[in-house]
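Budget justification aside, the reviewers requested a transparent look at the raw inputs and outputs of the sequence design task funded under Objective 1. We therefore reproduce one unedited record. The lines immediately below are the structure tokens for a 296-residue chain.
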């Protein structure tokens, strides 16, 4: 793959991570309207699939996909855009979100291990070194003394493994003709049906009651699902799961800066060092790739 394509993949994943980093702020405003985590995931998918469907129709001229692709599409979508966020959002009920995010970010290492075990992927020195530095940086986001409830810990770690599975499925997706908005139209449609059933069975179906709640629900649907998810998927397919997992750790960095800008939070020395390490890990994987990628 030429260097130009690699740069495109890097930028897509990084931009998606920045948008994902703003998601907790959006979710917080939806929660303030009395909406629970199950309904947030439902709204995120339900409000986005008509928009993505129109974009797919304009891009492809049709919404048809091979029937044999549906199981792979459904599995990829349910694991990555339904199961993983549900587990992570549920972990917030048992511990603070910062601690849950630290545990969730087990997924870069899980992607590396999963790629080796299930797909026989080649593990580069650059990838290993970057992930070690990344994990060290992420560990500094944990606040010493913060409670570690076992239920929240399990939910957060499993959400990370689910996201790792999603990344691996994306990077090895076997139907290249099903891509972009077309892929996401079916992912969000299937997820909407699944979550509607789950919310109905658990009696957890709650919709916003104010304009502000609906506005943030629509924002998270368009910005995250129609924007960030599509960029992350395309970027992962270009640069591979290992690199995408490392670069996506820009998400908590965005969360840190959003906290400083919006909530006037103060960056501690630990957080500052962690931020530098995560950024360094991202730069390092790019530098190693420059040595390997041919010029355009």
């Amino acid at each position: 793959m030429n260097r130009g394509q690699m740069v495109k993949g890097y930028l897509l994943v990084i931009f998606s991570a920045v948008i994902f980093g703003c998601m907790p702020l959006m979710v917080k405003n939806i929660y303030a309207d009395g909406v629970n985590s199950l309904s947030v995931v439902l709204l995120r998918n339900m409000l986005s699939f008509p928009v993505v469907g129109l974009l797919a129709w304009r891009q492809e001229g049709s919404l048809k996909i091979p029937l044999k692709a549906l199981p792979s599409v459904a599995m990829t979508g349910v694991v990555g855009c339904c199961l993983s966020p549900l587990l992570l959002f549920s972990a917030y009920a048992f511990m603070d979100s910062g601690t849950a995010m630290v545990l969730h970010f087990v997924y870069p290492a899980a992607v590396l291990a999963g790629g080796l075990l299930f797909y026989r992927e080649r593990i580069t020195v650059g990838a290993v070194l970057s992930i070690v530095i990344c994990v060290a940086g992420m560990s500094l986001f944990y606040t010493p003394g913060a409670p570690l409830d076992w239920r929240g810990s399990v939910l957060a770690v499993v959400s990370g493994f689910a996201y790792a599975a999603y990344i691996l499925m994306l990077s090895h997706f076997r139907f290249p003709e099903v891509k972009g908005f077309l892929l996401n139209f079916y992912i969000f449609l299937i997820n909407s049906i699944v979550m509607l059933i789950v919310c109905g069975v658990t009696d957890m179906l709650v919709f916003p009651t104010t304009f502000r709640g609906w506005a943030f629900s629509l924002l998270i649907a368009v910005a995250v699902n129609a924007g960030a998810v599509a960029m992350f998927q395309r970027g992962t397919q270009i640069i591979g799961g290992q690199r995408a997992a490392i670069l996506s750790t820009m998400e908590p960095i965005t969360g840190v800066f959003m906290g400083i800008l919006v909530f006037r939070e103060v960056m501690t020395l630990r957080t500052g060092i962690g931020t530098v390490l995560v950024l360094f890990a991202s730069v390092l994987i790019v530098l190693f790739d420059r040595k390997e990628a041919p010029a355009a």
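The mean pLDDT is 88. The chain has 13 helices and no strands. Computational costs for records of this kind are itemized in the attached budget.
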